[in-house]
Design a protein that fits this description.
Elements lengths: L5 E13 L5 E13 L3 E5 L6 H9 L6 E6 L1 H4 L8 E4 L12 H11 L4 H14 L15 H13 L5 E5 L7 H4 L16 E6 L7 E4 L11
Parallel strand pairs: 3-7, 3-8, 5-6, 6-7
Antiparallel strand pairs: 1-2, 1-4
Helix pairs in contact: 3-4, 3-5
Length: 222
């Protein structure tokens, strides 16, 4: 993978969904976006603007109603030791599947068939990095809200994804802990060529911002 290589592109993507009370609502409309290797992009918008829907489309969790999602070669490549794309979701409890913090931290690496010794070293290092060492044997449900967010984020970052999509995952984490998980571009994946896309409600820590509003129409830049 080379710098400026396109990792993923959305072409005129629209997402519609049925309301519980009947009818259809539009979550995204006509969104086009290209993410290149080495970029650090922040998507901005108020609540209900469609940011989480956008993150889910990029991660392949949901398919668009209209439009096209084109993945680059780096995301299509099936390297057993590499995570092509990682999504850090807004609600960490929705992602936990293991009954022990340490197991949850290493789950993605286990699914990538990492060697046991290497996996243990990586998990030990990440637990120390985010300050969760003393909770390694605890159930994730016993962690505080901020600690749950740290665990969810760290369990993805540990696998060095080429494309990292963060959906407001660090809002409840102290800056001293979150800084180790949100360095500048080039700290994950294949050398300096990863992409970090952050979904935020504010412009805090944004290097490059793309504003969005309800139904995907561009919001004002002011």
């Amino acid at each position: 993978m080379t710098r400026n290589e396109t990792l993923i592109e959305l072409r005129d993507v629209t997402c519609r969904r049925r309301r519980q009370g009947g009818g259809v609502e539009t979550a995204l409309e006509g969104v086009s976006l290209r993410l290149r290797a080495g970029e650090n992009l922040v998507v901005l918008g108020a609540g209900g603007a469609g940011k989480t829907t956008l993150a889910s489309v990029l991660a392949g969790v949901i398919a668009p109603t209209e439009g096209e999602v084109v993945r680059g070669a780096a995301l299509e490549r099936r390297d057993a030791a590499t995570l092509p794309l990682g999504l850090i979701a807004q609600n960490p409890e929705d992602t936990f599947t293991s009954p022990v913090v340490r197991e949850e931290m290493g789950l993605v690496l286990q699914n990538l068939d990492w060697d046991d010794a290497e996996l243990d070293r990586a998990v030990d290092a990440m637990l120390a990095e985010v300050g969760l060492e003393e909770y390694a044997a605890s159930h994730p449900a016993l962690l505080s809200g901020g600690q749950k967010q740290l665990l969810a984020a760290a369990s993805i970052v540990i696998a060095d994804p080429h494309l990292l999509v963060l959906d407001e995952p660090l809002s409840g984490i102290e800056s001293s802990s979150s800084s180790s998980l949100t360095p500048g571009p080039g700290s994950y994946g294949s050398g300096p060529y990863c992409v970090e896309l952050q979904i935020r409600n504010t412009v805090e820590a944004a290097d490059t911002g793309v504003p969005v509003s309800v139904a995907g129409s561009p919001a004002g830049s002011g």
